[in-house]
Amino acid sequence: MKSAVETLNPTRVRLTVEVPFEELKPSLDAAYKKINQQVTVKGFRQGKIPARVIDQRFGRGAVLEEAVNDALPKFYTEAVNEGELNVLGQPEVDITELKDGELLAFTAEVDIRPALEIPDYSGIEVEVDAVEVSDEDVDKSVEQLRERFATTSPVERAAQDGDVLTLNLEAKVDGEVLEDGVAEGVSYTVGSGELLDGIDEAVTGVEAGNSATFTSELKGGSAEGKEAEVTVEVTEVKSRELPELDDDFAQLASEFDTLEELRADSRKRLEQMKKYDQATQAQEKVLDELLKLVEVPMPEKLLADEIETRKHNLVNHQLGQMGLDLAKYLEIQGKSEEEFDAETKEQAEKGIKTQFILDELVNKEKLNVSQEELTEHLMRRAQSSGMSPDQFAQAVVEGGQVPMLVGEVARGKALAVVVEAATVKDSNGEVIELDDEDETAETVEATEADEAEAGAEEKPEA
């Protein structure tokens, strides 16, 4: 076999391949065997029909077509390896010549990873938020914990802000009660802003056993978006009582004996959360600066496929689960279709660039992924997917996605190398020494194109 590579642009090549006919013999033999098992000819046992009879009865062309389709992936792969190409996606194959007994010639156009030059990234400098926890932050945290231990008790008075009510609701549109516009025994906290616009004003001052009517735009159901006349009946009023902020509360709500110990622990937890947010912010900003340093030619077909994948996942999975279509989603977001398309393209380009650059860094820095690192990453991914580690691992193996997970971990390590080399300062001008974050890979996953190389190993067909 002879092959040659023609560079069409920095991200696409054309392979020209010539195969001597004798190299097709294994595929020809397989084609005759396959046809033998599929057809019957009077006077011959199935599977024992001579090749010349198959040629006469079914045509030599059918055999050649079967043999070529069987052989193409092998010859294509040999040509790719011979050219030392890093291909992306499926090739577009065109058979240019097929002479029975003499020659098979074909061309294959395919996207390739562009060659990248990674410049010195040690000069990257970014600013992140300082880790500062105020007394007000601690007060808010303790107050949220206090809210969780609130108790309720029935009262014989009009409803007021903060009360927990039991309500019956009935919605009418154009004077007709909606089939899905009736609800009973609904629990509602006055002032929470939930359910319907206008409900807080309607129920405030109403005692149990009385009702009120107000007009509101429906947020869901069969008449979503329409103005409705809503009658709300208050069947019970309960007051919420918060526990006193003292040592007894600390002992009730935590493992601490005093309120001061509880507040100190809250401050510590808030500091840890802000340090984690600071590290994530540093990773994202360093990645953005790294992307600015490297010129990345964009494979057009790969980009188009990635944009389509992102749209498909949004419409058929995320929006589908919420009962929305794209038009309604754009209306809620206040975006035009043109703005949505532009944003999707920008995100897809950033994802592909991120993957290309970090993969190049993995090779440059000779980074490897250990079994322990892969297992830890798998555990995190399983947790975020809502599956058990065993279920997730089985799905990954059956889906042939182990290399994808290995790539995610490796890219996370590559980003960590760049972050370590960069100068990170907080908003107070202090240089920050970031801990080795196990979650670095999640920052990568949020921006890279998950399907950027989907189908890269699929077989070509004529």
Overview of this protein structure:
It is found in: Cytoplasm. Keywords: Cell cycle, Cell division, Chaperone, Cytoplasm, Isomerase, Rotamase. Involved in protein export. Acts as a chaperone by maintaining the newly synthesized protein in an open conformation. Functions as a peptidyl-prolyl cis-trans isomerase. The structure is a single chain. Mean pLDDT is about 90; it is low at about 450-460. With about 450 residues, the chain is of the alpha+beta class. A hairpin with a 2-residue loop joins strand 7 (about 165-175) and strand 8. It is extended, with a radius of gyration of 33 Å. It has helices at about 25-40, 50-60, 60-80, 135-150, 200-205, 245-255, 260-295, 300-320, 325-335, 335-365, 370-385, 390-400, 400-420, 440-445; strands at about 1-10, 10-20, 85-100, 105-110, 125-130, 150-155, 165-175, 175-190, 210-215, 225-240, 425. It has 14 helices and eleven strands. The strands form three sheets. Strands 6, 7, 8, 9 and 10 form a five-stranded antiparallel beta sheet that branches. A four-stranded antiparallel beta sheet has the order 1-2-4-3. Helix 6 crosses helix 7 and helix 8 crosses helix 10.
Task: Provide key terms for this protein.
462 residues, alpha+beta, 4-stranded antiparallel sheet, 47% helix, disordered C terminus
Structural topology:
Elements lengths: L1 E8 L2 E9 L4 H14 L12 H8 L1 H23 L4 E13 L3 E10 L12 E4 L6 H14 L2 E4 L9 E10 L2 E14 L9 H5 L7 E7 L9 E15 L5 H7 L5 H35 L6 H23 L3 H8 L3 H28 L6 H15 L3 H10 L3 H20 L1 E4 L13 H8 L15
Helix pairs in contact: 1-3, 2-3, 4-7, 6-7, 7-13, 8-10, 10-13, 11-12, 13-14
Protein name: Trigger factor
Family: Belongs to the FKBP-type PPIase family. Tig subfamily.
Keywords: Cell cycle, Cell division, Chaperone, Cytoplasm, Isomerase, Rotamase
